[in-house]
Amino acid sequence: MKRVEFDFARLRAVVRQFPLLGDVVAAERYGSGHINDTYKVAMNLAGTPLNYLLQRINHSIFKNPAQLMENILRVTEHQWTKIADPDDLDASRRCLTVLMSNEGLPYVRDEDGNWWRGYLFIEKARTWDQIDDNSFAYEAARAFAVFQNQLADLPLPRLHETIPDFHHTPKRIETLDRAIAEDAHGRAAEVQAEIEFVNQRREECGRLIRRFEAGEIPERITHNDTKINNVMLDDASGKGVCVIDLDTVMPGLALYDFGDMVRSAAAASAEDEQDLSLAGTRIDVFEALARGYLSEAGFLNEAELDELVFSGRVITMTIGIRFLTDYLCGDVYFRTHRAGQNLDRCRVQFQMVRSMEQQSDAMEAVVAAVRKGHRAP
Predict the structure, then answer these.
(1) d(Cα 213, Cα 123) in Å, to the nearest integer?
(2) CA-CA distance, 177 to 190, in Å (whole number)?
(3) In terms of CATH, what superfamily is 134-375?
(4) What is the pLDDT of residues 47-69, one digit of tens each?
(5) pTM over cut 0.85
(6) How confident is residue 376, by pLDDT bands cut at 50, 70 and 90?
(7) Rounded CA separation 140/162 (Å)
(8) Extended beta strands in the chain, E state
(9) 8-123 — its CATH code?
C-alpha cells in the first residue's frame, strides 16, 4: 500500500464516522512510523481543544484488519482491568483507548476501501527515535515488561497472528533465499557480502526456535515491535506512560521483545546511517535496558534469562534479513525515502550484530550482575 496524502476534507469525512462531539479544525501527519499513515486530529468542543489519533491501517501488510482490531480491542480492554482505579486521575494515559465507530466497530472504511481506526490522543508525553538519556531506555524497557505482565493472564481464545511467523528467523531466511533466487530487480550481485554474512550465521539463527520447540522457552503474549519509539514517555518525569503500536501484539517469545529493544534502543547510529564506522551497539544502553526490563519481568524462566544477550543479536539479525529481502524485492514493505535506503538499513543491522558479537562477554556480565542484584535479599 503506497503512502497517500489525504486532504482535510477526506480526513474530516473519516472522523465523522466516529461519534465524536465538536468541530474538526485541523489534521496533520504525526509520528515516524514506516507502515501505517498516522494523523493527529484537532477538534474544538464548545471552546475546549481536544486531540485524537487517526490511523489508516496498511491492509497490504495486515491482510485482515478486522482480526487485527479484534486483537487490539481485546488487549486494551484487558489492560484496563489491570489499571482501572477510580482514584487514578491519569489512568486514561496508561493504555490506548480505541474509538468505536458509529456502527459500534473498532474501525471504519472510507469510500476507497481504506481501513481506519481512532484512539484518544495521549497528551503531555512523546516518543523518542533515539536515546538521549539512558533513563529513557530504562523506562521504555520497564514499560514493555509491565505490558507483558498485564497480558500474562489474557484469557482464551489465542490472539490472531496478524503476521504469521513474524520473528521466525529461519523462515525469514527462507524468504530471503527465494528473493535471492528470483532476483526480480537485478540487485543480488551487489549484496553478495550481505548474503555471505547471513550464510555464516544460518545455524545459530534457529537457536531460539529450537529451544521453543523443545519446550524450554514458552509462548507468551508479546508486543513483537518493541522499538524505543513505541513507548510514550511523560514530558515532565520521563517515566514510561503507555505502550503503543499494537498491530503485532500476538503470541510470541518474550525474548523477541527484549531483543528488539536492544536492536532499536542501543543502536549507536541512525537506522539508515551510510557511514558504518558510526554504527554499532552501545553497551551502556544495553545495561539500562536490562535493568529496566528485569525490574518488572519476574515471569521469565531460566532459559529465557540465559538467552537475553543472544536475543538482541538474533532479532537484529532478523530485521537486517528483512531489510535485505525487501531491497531485493524492490522495496515493497518498508517505506523508503531514497534509493538504497533499505540496503543501508540492512548494513547497519549487520554492523550492530558484529558489535554485539564482539561485546558478547561484556553483555553477559551485565545481565549476570543485574540478575544477581534482583536475587539479593
Answers:
(1) 43
(2) 15
(3) Aminoglycoside phosphotransferase (APH), C-terminal lobe (3.90.1200.10)
(4) 999 999 999 999 988 999 999 99
(5) yes
(6) very low
(7) 24
(8) 23-29, 37-45, 48-57, 108-109, 115-120, 125-126, 220-222, 231-234, 240-243, 250-252
(9) 3.30.200.20
